[in-house]
Recover the amino acids of this structure.
C-alpha cells in the first residue's frame, strides 16, 4: 500500500539558516511526489512536484527537493529560511486510484523560525 | 490561474442540523474534485472523490449517507454534512483536479455545538 512518512513532526530553525525536511514514501511504481505548504487555517499551496526527469526539482519561494529512488526519499530543502516560511509542510505521493489520480499525505512537519 | 474557492470559510451549527459546503473552481473546469478532512495538527485524509455527473466515490470508513456529495457542474461540488454531531467538527478542504494536478481550496472550518 502507498504511504508517506515525515519523520519530523516539529522543526525549529533560525532565520537565515538552511532547512531540510524529510519525506520517505512507499509506492510500487514510479511515484508522483509533491510538497505542499499550509499556513494556519488555510488551504494548501503547491511548492513543487516531481513527475519524471531531473531528480532535483526547483519550486516556488526558493525551495527545492531531490528525488532519490534508492532511498525512497523526496526531501525538501531551502538554503536560507525566512520568517515567513513558518508553516506546516506536507509531503504527498500521487497514485492512480480507480479512475483518477489521488494523493496520500504525510503527517506534516511544523516549521518554526526563530529570529 | 487554477483558483479554487470554498464557501463558507467558517460555519457553526447546532447538533442535528445539516450543513452544506461549496467548492468552486473559478477559472477552470474540473471533472473531478476531492474532499478532505483535517483534524487539528493532523494530515489531510481523503474522504471522497467527486465526479461531475456521477456518484461520488467514498473512501473506506466514510459514511456516504452522512457526507453527501453532489458535483452538478464542472465548476461546483458540494459537501453536505447531514445530522451533524460534535465529532464532525473539523477542517474540510476540497481540491479540483486539472491535468493530473490538484488545486486546493482555502478550507472550511466546521464547528458543531
Amino acid at each position: 500500500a502507498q504511504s508517506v512518512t515525515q519523520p519530523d513532526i516539529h522543526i525549529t530553525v533560525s532565520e537565515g539558516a538552511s532547512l531540510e525536511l524529510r519525506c520517505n514514501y512507499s509506492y510500487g511504481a514510479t511515484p508522483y511526489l509533491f510538497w505542499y505548504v499550509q499556513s494556519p487555517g488555510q488551504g494548501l499551496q503547491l511548492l513543487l512536484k516531481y513527475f519524471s526527469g531531473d531528480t532535483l526539482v526547483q519550486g516556488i519561494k526558493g525551495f527545492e527537493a531531490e528525488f532519490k529512488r534508492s532511498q525512497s526519499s523526496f526531501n525538501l530543502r531551502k538554503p536560507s529560511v525566512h520568517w515567513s516560511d513558518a508553516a506546516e509542510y506536507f509531503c504527498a505521493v500521487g497514485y492512480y486510484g480507480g479512475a483518477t489520480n489521488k494523493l496520500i499525505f504525510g503527517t506534516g512537519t511544523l516549521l518554526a523560525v526563530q529570529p | 490561474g487554477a483558483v479554487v474557492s470554498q464557501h463558507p470559510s467558517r460555519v457553526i451549527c447546532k447538533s442535528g442540523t445539516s450543513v452544506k459546503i461549496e467548492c468552486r473552481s473559478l477559472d477552470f473546469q474540473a471533472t473531478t474534485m476531492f474532499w478532505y478532512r483535517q483534524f487539528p495538527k493532523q494530515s489531510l485524509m481523503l474522504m471522497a472523490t467527486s465526479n461531475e455527473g456521477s456518484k461520488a466515490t467514498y473512501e473506506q470508513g466514510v459514511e456516504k449517507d452522512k457526507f453527501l456529495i453532489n458535483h452538478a457542474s464542472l465548476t461546483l461540488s458540494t459537501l453536505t454534512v447531514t445530522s451533524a454531531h460534535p465529532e464532525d467538527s473539523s477542517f474540510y478542504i476540497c481540491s479540483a483536479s486539472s491535468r493530473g494536478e490538484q488545486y486546493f481550496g482555502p478550507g472550511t472550518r466546521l464547528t458543531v455545538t
Q: What stands out?
A: Chain B is about 0% helix and 55% strand. The longest strand of chain B covers residues 90-98.
